[in-house]
Structures are given as structure tokens and as C-alpha cells.
Amino acid sequence: MSCSWGTELWDQFDNLEKHTSWGIDFLERYSKFIKERADIELSYAKQIRSLSKKYHPKRSREDESRYTWCLAFAATLQQLNELAVQREELAENLNTQIACELTRYTQEVKTERKTHFQDGRRAQQHIESSWKQLESSKRRFERDCKEAERAQQVSDRIDLDNKTDGEKARQTAQQKKQAAEESRKEYVTSLNQFNQDQHQHYHTLVPVIYQRIQDMEERRIERICEAMRSSAEAERKVLPVVSRCLDVMMDASEGIQPRMDTQQVVEVYKSGFDPPGDVEFEDYSATMRRSISESSYLDNRTEGRRHSRKLWPFIRKNKLLTLLSSPRQPPPPPPTSPSPGGVANSPQSPPPASREPITQRLNELMSSGSRTRKQCLRSLKRGGSGPADCSHLPPEQRRKKLQTRINNINEEIQREREQRDALLKMREVYERSPQMGDAGSLEPRLDEVKQSLQRLDEELRRNQAWLSEADSRLSDHSSRRQSGGCGLNSQAMTPGSSSLKQLDNRSPASRESPDGSYTEDHSAELHFKSRSSEFDDDFDDEEPLPSIGTCKSLYPFQGQNEGTLSMVEGELLSVVEEDKGDGWTRVRRNLEEEGYVPTSYIKVFLDASAKGAMTYI
């Protein structure tokens, strides 16, 4: 059914004007809706992208690349980032393809509507003007007719009474009659003109104008329909990508393998040590007096530590405050004429006024950069960087560290070889075509690549040798554990047996130093094994650093500042930390007193394992 506004709504000009105005308002409101929706999509995309960036794994966390649940979460965050990209694309399409077009079309519709209703008003004014002219001629005709009728009545009445006045009245009546006739003709003309104008208005002008308004309204509605369809199509366009992202998330969640992750924990943290052996029986019935001498000093130190040391699994490793208390002043020079018992003649440590408090050193440490602070903390905790062969690590971790280093070196060698091959090909091209470039300009770069390859090859051979050594030691530990287990059980509870023999039969787990380092030197193992045999019930005490040797004081020293230790001439002390170049050596006495003494005042006897480890620092 087809309906035309020109024929059906010929008398609803005002209502059509209101309806079309409301339609344009709706068009503007829908355009605003599209803009706000695009802004919401864009804001949502930004929030999703920010959330994904916030929880994305940091490069410094290597653990997150080992476990399947971390990889699944990383994949989820990556797909969320892709979803944010799709939302941004949807927002851009809504803004550029729909909102902007609707805004432009709204202005066009407003202009067209204004033109159509101006034409309608002009037609309405014309028909109203024609009607007013008709009404005016009609009233004039009516008035002239009434005046002519009255003049005729007066003329007839006067004619009967007076013939002279009757003639004059007849002439007046005749004039009124002629005027009425002229008004009648004018009225007829106006009536015909109005009828003609009215017919043209309601059958020609109004239908054409209203049809144009109807066409404009239909185009407006069609444009809204297209905008809604376009918005749906824009969202449907990103649905396949969204669905694919969700599928990837589902695949990532299904790829989580708890058993593999738990096995990976074993691979990461396995040390290769055996659990600690049984605690030895100590016979206190046989009392003996030990003289203080250089040969028996280590036994006294071991005996005194048995009641305060803890087994290595319970050891704390936070030594920051103790390490920060190291004296910063240069040590005093040794006396020119030492006095055997002269404590009064011993040089004094630097005056207290030049002492630097711990808080100041902490402030200096914390005010440095994060990278420098981390290196300083590691250096303070471990006494410097670890050896190049990773001998400070447990056996299993050492093997994995060396294997990772070898893999990285192989990758670097491969990259350098590819670069070398590219440079050689470029040199051949330059030699064949000198106009393309100078072949000699590539020689410095080739020499640099060759030197880099030689350096990498040397590092590779060195690390491979260390890896072979670590593998052989792991195999030795394995065979020793299988062959020496029975002998350990048979002698563990025998009172009075030799402590050195029992220590030799113990498992390799006690070869780990209390701070987590590892050594293969058997003489150093004797010190560490005796310390880890028993532990005290008080776990709140701070674990002391391991000893790396002994020292004998050459001169007396009176330590008065914070972090220093007083000593007498000829006293035997345990060396905890070597001189780092500042002239001070960290020593310990009887597990209770610990501090720094001038290096020039003592004679140091380092253990063999400590000497080997220090060669790599």
C-alpha cells in the first residue's frame, strides 16, 4: 500500500513540520549515541591494554618462562592485547564511517527541510492572500448591492410623492445599481481566481512539496537503517578475531600441565647434594685439656661452634648490616718496634670523630641506582662476584648454569658467523664491482668479527671443560653415595671413633658451606662438616659467615671503633673475609667476637679451597 503525504496529509502542514523536526532530532541523538559508544570502546581498549601491560611478565623474571601456567597467563595477556586492538579498530570505524557521516548528513537534511517548508509556507501565504482578496471583493459586492437596493426603494417612494425629486432619486439608484454590478463582476473574477489558485495549491503545489518532504523523511530513515547496519557489521567484522583470541586463551589454559611444572621445580632448584647424615655421638665422659696452639686451633673452633651452629638448611643469609659495619678509614701502619706484651705501645685505631656510622653507609647505598644497588648488595652478601667456573654453586645448579652459558655462547658464535659470511659476500661484490663500494673498508669490521669469534671459541672451550669437570664430579658423587652408604650407617653411632674418619664417610651434602657455596677441597670440607653436625634450638640467632682460613697476629691492636676487633700479639684468629683492598681483614674469635683488624698486623693462612675460589674473582 502506497500513501502519499500530498494527498493524504494535505491539511497537516504543521504536524508534518513537527514530525520532521523530531526526526532530525532523533538523527542527531543517534549520531551522539554512536560517538559515545565509540568513546566507550576506545576507553575499554585502553584499559584492557593497560591491564595487559601491568600484568605482563617482566623480563627480569626468568621463572615465568619455565612453567606452563605462567606461559598460559602470558598468552592470555597477549590475546587481551589483541582484543584491545580490535576494540580500537571498532571504535575508529564507528567514528569515521558512521558518526562523521551522520553528522554531515544531518546538516544536509536540515538544509533540505528548511527549503521544503519555506516553499510550503510561500504556497500557504499565496492561497491565504487569494482568499483575502476574494473575501474583500465579496464584502464590497454585498455592500454595493445593499446600497443599490436602498437607493431603489428611496427612488420608488419619492417618485410617488414628487416627480422632480423622483428623477434625481432614480439617477442615484441607477448609479448604485451600476456600482453593484461592477462589484459583482469583480467578485466573480476574484472567486474564479481563488478557485483556480486553490485547485493549484491542493492538487499541484502541496502534493509536490509534501512529496519532497516525504522523500526526505524516507531517506533519513534509510540512512539511520544503514548506520545501524554498518555498526553491526563493524562489530561483526572483529568477531572472528575475538573468537580466535578466545580460542587461543582456551588452548593456553588446556596446555597447563601441573606434573610438568612440578618436575620443572625439581630441575630449577635441585642442588645435587645428598641429605645430611646422622648426627654423631659425642662422648663427654672423656675430658681432655687442649693447649692453645696453631695446630689445635681448628679443633677448638670446631668444638666451640657445635653448640651454636645450625645445619645448613636453616641458615640465614642476610649479612647486610654486618657487612656495612666494615671500617672505611685506612688501617694504622704496623709499629716499627713491636713490644711482645705491650698493649700500651700498640697503635690505636682511628679516632672516633672520623668514624662513619652505619646509617650513613645505608643512605649512600640506597641513594645509588637500582642496578648499582643490586650489584653492591650481591657483592656485600657474597664478598664479591662468584668465580667464573660457577664452583660456588651446588653441583646440579652449576651444571645447568654452565650448560645455559654454553648455549648462549653457541648462539653468539652463530650470529657472528652469519655476520662474517655476509661481510665476505659483500667484499666479493665490491671486488667484482668497485663502483658499488670499497672492499678495503670492510677489513676492520672483518677483523673485529674474527677476534670476537676467537674470543667466543676460547670461552666455549673453557666452559665445556668446566662442564665436563662438573659432570665427572656429579658421577663421582653418585658412585660414592651408592658405595659409601652402608659404611656410614655402621659407624655413625660408634662412640669414640675418629672424627676425621667419620667426616670422610659422610655424604657430600655437608660440603656445602653455610651461605650456600660449594667446594670440592677436602681440607675445607672438614671445617664445614663439623659445623653442620648439630644445631641449637634457638633459630633466631644470625648465622656467622664461614671461615676461609686462619691468621696469627704479629702486633697487638686495640680496636675502639665500630666494627673493629682488639687482639694481642701471637693470638690465633679465624679469617672470615679477605682484604678487599682497603687494608682491613675480617676475623672472628670464639664464635662470639667478630670484626676487622689491619691486614698489616696479621699473617694470613688461607684454606686451599678459598685460594682456588679467589683466583676467579
Automatic annotation (TrEMBL):
Annotated keywords: Cell membrane, Coiled coil, Cytoplasm, Cytoskeleton, Endocytosis, Lipid-binding, Membrane, SH3 domain
Record SUPFAM superfamilies: BAR/IMD domain-like, SH3-domain, Tropomyosin
**Gene Ontology MF term list:** lipid binding
Ranges of residues in domain F-BAR: 3-261
Keyword Cytoplasm in the entry? The reply is yes
Record bears the keyword Coiled coil: yes
- Where would I find the REM-1 domain in this sequence? 392-469
Q: Which GO terms describe its biological process?
A: endocytosis; signal transduction
The ranges of region (Disordered) come to: 152-182, 324-356, 379-405, 430-450, 470-524
Which SMART domains is this protein grouped with?
FCH (SM00055), SH3 (SM00326)
Where located?
Cell membrane; Cytoplasm, Cell cortex; Cytoplasm, Cytoskeleton
Residue ranges of every copy of the SH3 domain listed in the record: 546-607
What CDD domains does the entry give?
HR1_CIP4-like (cd11619)
The GO cellular component terms are: cell cortex; cytoskeleton; plasma membrane
Residue ranges, compositional bias (Pro residues): 328-338
One matching Pfam family is FCH
- Tell me the superkingdom of the source: Eukaryota
* Sequence ranges of Basic and acidic residues compositional bias: 152-170, 470-479
Residue ranges under compositional bias (Polar residues)? 488-510
The record's family statement is:
Belongs to the FNBP1 family.
Name of the protein described by the UniProt record? Formin binding protein 1a
Gene behind the chain = fnbp1a
